[in-house]
Amino acid sequence: MSLLSYAKTLSERSSRSDLRVPAFAARALAFTLAAMLPAMSLAALDQTLPENLPAAPVYTGERPLCLYVSSYHVGYDWSDGVERGLRDVLEGNCVIEQFDMDTKRRRDKDDIVAAAAAANTLIERLAPDIIITSDDNAAKYLIVPYLVDGPIPVVFSGVNWTVEEYGFPASNVTGIVEVAPIRPMIREALTLAPDSAQAVYVGALTLTEKKNFNRIADAAWTFGVKLDSVFAETFDEWKIAFDYAQSYDFVIIGSHSGIDDWSEEEASAYALARTRRPSLTNHSWMMSVSAIGYTKLAEEHGERAGATALAILKGTAMRDIPLVTNSKWDTWINVALTSRLDTPIPERLTRRAKEVGR
Question: In the chain, N or C: fewer CB atoms in 10 Å?
């Protein structure tokens, strides 16, 4: 939608009492643009607003406005799960607007910074009652530079492992820190490969994956295991890394998100043909290439963020809402891949685990 069209729409609706944008501000914007028109082409105006900004929404005063900013995109399994959990809690309690920063597919820093700026422009335009975000890039590039200690309460979710680097909590910021069940996963790896001394982490070349590796490497060291890493930017690089990983005692499979040419079908077939060592993951969407999974539940993050947002909207003070971590996980077995391992799978695991690859 063009800035001109947006201003016209605001001006036309400015007499309505249920419009959140003040009428005088809408008319002022329209008049300002009208004065600018001789010096600006319509084509230039049409490119002023990003296409994914909501077009002049009208909100009733009956329910608060909740803005959800996702670091990633619709169709990414983790983000979709967070959104499902969030909407399950918020639906009927507030009007929900969503902005997707799309930083898994647009990974250049300039693109991420631009996405955060566009999100902030939307925030200024909508003046939401509360903002909910998911994952690290929204925290790093949106909350920290634009929202910390501001007037709008912010609830983050899915920030990996620690928030110290972002300075959270803040006077208007609280949320849910994402942790993975890495110690149970490593203990399981040592059950499958008892004398392990060296393992390797295979993942995409992204900020989140580097944070995941560092945390898992620290935990592995407490078990006497040195964890190396291989990060891939393309699917071919990932396949080379997967082959290389078979020379280690066991393999930790990170996320493929950030590998643009990833093929789920080809990756699954490749893993089935090449797996020789126990492979474990914290990501449910990587179970097609992993033998064992101890996976986080994305929905839990959305549900807890939504419940926190509602508590704030109902008057709970931010200082009374501490940071929390997720506490639930699923256990998985890829039957096809475990059948290729020399070691038997413990019965206690097969009894409780969900199965794929049968």
Answer: C
Cα–Cα distance for residue pair 320/87, rounded to 1 Å: 24
CA dist., res. 74 & res. 249, Å (int): 36
CATH match of 182-296+329-356 with 3.40.50.300: no
- State both tokens at 173: 């910021």
> What DSSP string describes 202-271?
EEESSHHHHHHHHHHHHHHHHTT-EEEEEEESSHHHHHHHHHHHTTSSEEEE---TT-TT--HHHHHHHH
Q: Is 127 exposed, middle or buried (0-12, 13-18, 19+ CB in 10 A)?
A: middle
- The answer to whether 178 and 158 are in contact (CB under 8 A) is yes
Cβ neighbours for 5, distance < 8 A, ≥ 6 positions apart: 55
Token digits of residue 161: 């492992």
How far is the C-alpha of 128 from the C-alpha of 124, rounded, in Å?
8
Residue 82 has which token pair? 């967070």
What SS3 state is found at 333? Answer: strand
Peptide bond preceding 169 in cis form (omega within 30 of 0): yes
Distance CA(302)–CA(309), nearest Å, equals 10
What's the chain's Rg over C-alpha atoms?
23
How far, CA to CA in Å, does 137 sit from each of 173, 223, 247?
15, 31, 34
Domain boundaries, given as residue ranges, for the chain? 1-62, 182-296+329-356
pLDDT tens for 296-346 read 889 999 999 999 999 999 999 998 999 999 888 899 999 999 999 988 888
